C-alpha cells in the first residue's frame, strides 16, 4: 500500500500540470462529407428505368448525328458503344431479306451472311489497322466502322421504296445514284475518323480496305431484287 | 571499300554483290544470318550477272541494318504479326507494279521484298480478286442475259464463298508445296538461294494482282478478248514467278527444273481458266428453257 503510494508519487508531479484556460483550443472535428460524385453514383440506381434507357439512346442518337455531319470530333471515339452498329446491322440484314430468290441458293445474301460480312469485315479491317500501327483501340474502330454504315442503311430503305414503283431503268438509275452517294459518304465519314490515327505514310493502306468493305455492302444493296 | 568519303561518316554497306561488282576477286563475308552459306558460295562460284541492279528503291536505312534482327518476337504475341505489316504505301505500290512487269534479271524477292515480306499485299489482293471475280461474273451474266424473257436476275451471292476458297487455297497451299519441295531439294543438292515461306507466299500473292484488271476486262462478252487477256496475264505473272524461282532451281537436274517450272505456270493458268469458266461462262438460255420444259413435262406426267 505504501509502496503503491510511493510508486504513484513520481507521477504526483504531473498532477500540477494543467492547461491554462486562456489558450483557446480550436479545430473542427467533423468528418468532411464525401464528394458529390459518390452521391451521383448512388442516384442513378434510383432513377427511373426510362431515364437510363433514354440516356443510352441519346448517346447513340448523338453519334448518328455526328456521322451525318462528319467533322473531326472525338465523340465517336471517346465514348464508343456497339449498340448503334448492332441496330444498323440488324436493320440492314432485315431489309435485305425478302429477295425473290430466297428459296434457291443462288440468291441474295441470307440474314446470317449479311451479319457475318459486316461484323467479320469490321474485325478484319480493325485488325489490319492495328497491325499497321494504328493508335485506335479495337472497339473504337469497330464503333466507327459500324456507325458509318448508317448512310448505306438509309440508301437500302430508299431503294426498297423505289423498287415499289417498278419503273425499270429510271428506278435503277435512281438506285445507282443513291447507293453511290451513300457509299461515298460512308467511306468519307469513316476515313475522317480513322485516318488520323495512322502514320502519314500508311494512310492509303488503311483506307483501301474500308473502301472495299463499303463497296461490297453497296453492291449487296444495289443488287437486291425483290 | 574504295570510298573517298570521310571515314567517320556513316556509310551504308550494301550487299555483297555490289561490293563484288567493283572488286571481282575479293572475297566478302556477309554477316546476315540466313544466307550465310549461300552468299559465301556465291562469291566462290563467281559473280552472276543477274543481280546487278540491287537498289532501285533508294537507300532504305532500316532494311539492311535490321536485316538479321527481324521477327524475334515469339509467334503468339501481336508484335510478331506486326513485323509482317511493316510496309508503307509506296512499298506496296512498287511491289504491285513489279509483279506486273517482269524485267529480265530482276528477281522479285530480291529486288522488291528485300528481306521484308509482308502479308498486307497478298491478303488484300486475294480478297479484292475474290470480290472482283464474283461481282464481275455477276455483271457479265446480267449483261449477257439482259432482255431475254426467261432470265430472272439473281445476285448469286453464294459464288463469293467458292471464289474465296479457290483463290485463298491457291495463294496458300501452292506456296506451301513449293516451299516444301525446295526444302527437300535443298537437302539433296546444294542450292545457292533459299527462300523463306513468307517470301514465297508474298510473291504468289502479288503475282495475282494482274488478274484484277483482267477480271474487269472479262465483263465484256467477247470470247477472243477473254482468251487474249488470259494469255497476256498468264505470261506476265508466270514469268515473274519463273524468274523468281529460277535462281533456286538453276543447279538442279534439268528434268526437275522443267517439271517445277511447268507446274508453276500450269497451276497459275489453271486458276485463271477455272475462274473464267466457272464465273463467266454462259450456260445457254435454251438450257434454262429446256429444264423448265422438262419439269413441266414431269409434272404433267405425274398428274395424269
> How many whole angstroms does the radius of gyration of chain A measure?
33 Å
Largest sheet of chain A: none
* Strand/helix succession of chain A: HHHHHHHHHH
N-to-C span of chain A = 112 Å
Q: Bin the helical content of chain B.
A: 55-70%
What's the helix-strand series of chain B? HHHHHHHHHHHHH
Topology overview:
The complex is a heterodimer of chains A (226) and B (304).
Chain A (H helix, E strand, L loop, with lengths): L1 H7 L27 H11 L2 H20 L6 H4 L4 H13 L15 H21 L6 H10 L2 H14 L4 H27 L8 H20 L4
Helix pairs in contact in A: 5-6, 5-7, 5-8, 6-7, 6-10, 8-9, 8-10, 9-10
Chain B lengths: L15 H7 L13 H10 L15 H5 L12 H5 L6 H12 L7 H6 L6 H26 L13 H30 L8 H11 L3 H7 L5 H27 L4 H27 L4 H19 L1
Helix pairs in contact in B: 7-8, 7-9, 7-10, 7-12, 8-9, 8-12, 11-12
Account of the protein in words:
The complex is a heterodimer of chains A (226) and B (304). Chain A has 226 residues and is an all-alpha fold. Chain A has helices at residues 2-8, 36-46, 49-68, 75-78, 83-95, 111-131, 138-147, 150-163, 168-194, 203-222. Chain A has a domain at 49-60 and 81-98 and 107-224. Chain B is an all-alpha fold and 304 residues long. Chain B has a domain at 93-292. The chains are: A mainly alpha (226), B mainly alpha (304). At the A-B interface, helix 6 and helix 10 of A face helix 4, helix 5 and helix 7 of B.
